[in-house]
Automatic annotation (TrEMBL):
InterPro entries: Beta-barrel_OMP_2 (IPR025665). Residues 1-18 form the signal peptide. It comes from Flavobacterium enshiense DK69. This is PorT protein. Keywords: Signal. Residues 39-204 form the Outer membrane protein beta-barrel domain. The keyword Signal applies. It comes from the Bacteria.
Length: 234
């Protein structure tokens, strides 16, 4: 994903350089969408990729639960409110799919040792965007804030647990998010690739009914971590 992000930025920049020999970062570029960021409110959407992980803390020191992450897809909308020249408030509701495979090293049976945790999140981030001064058609920014996530695949209502092959998580979780990106201004739209980290605040694990469960008995907390690479269009 990192290579894809870098490659896309280079392609976009190269295409801009080729246009009329002036380019996005030339000395005298044609300024695209000069008044775009002066709008009080504007809208957009994003597409991207994510990799979710878990951070485990344990009651007693033991072998770590292995988390095998996969790459999945996310999509969402953007609502942007201009607060002042370099500061915006963002609401970015979106949908993210993920799968994390958990390997429990203390369980001998190969079937019971593995749990596939498939999640579909509806995310509700409220973020502050801190932008630098615009240079031609280029404007870096930092972004951060908090979000609530609804996990549609949590199995929280199930009475079965890992003894019946059901891994349970809480339905709602809170997160903080931090990231950075670049606004690139074209003739008809603004394109914004970005990288963002998502970090769970609260424990998401629902313990098994047996307090000595080999799956959940020694877990003090289980919190989501994730990396998002988004490509936004305004």
């Amino acid at each position: 994903m990192k290579k894809l992000f870098v490659l896309l930025v280079l392609i976009v920049s190269g295409k801009s350089f080729a246009q009329k020999g002036i380019g996005m970062f030339g000395k005298n570029p044609i300024i695209n969408l000069e008044n775009f960021d002066k709008q009080r409110v504007h809208w957009g959407y994003y597409l991207g990729f994510n990799t979710y992980d878990f951070k485990f803390d344990y009651i007693e020191p033991d072998k770590d639960i292995e988390v095998q992450s996969t790459t999945a897809f996310n999509v969402g909308l953007i609502g942007n409110l201009r607060l002042m020249e370099y500061l915006d408030l963002r609401f970015e509701p979106g949908l993210a799919y993920s799968q994390r495979n958990l390997v429990f090293p203390n369980i001998e049976d190969s079937f019971d040792r593995l749990r596939e945790v498939k999640s579909t999140y509806i995310n509700f981030p409220l973020l502050l965007k801190f932008s630098s001064k615009r240079i031609g058609n280029f404007r870096p920014y930092l972004i951060g804030g908090f979000s609530k996530s609804l996990n549609l695949g949590s199995n929280s209502d199930s009475k079965d647990d890992n003894y019946n092959d059901v891994f349970r998580m809480k339905k709602w979780t809170s997160n903080y998010e931090v990231g950075f990106g670049i606004d690139l201004y074209f003739e008809y739209f603004k394109f914004s690739p970005s990288v963002r980290g998502v970090f769970g605040i609260n424990d998401e694990l629902i313990r098994d009914n047996n307090p000595d469960s080999p799956w959940t008995g020694n877990v003090e907390s289980m919190k989501t971590r994730g990396i998002f690479i988004n490509f936004a269009f305004h």
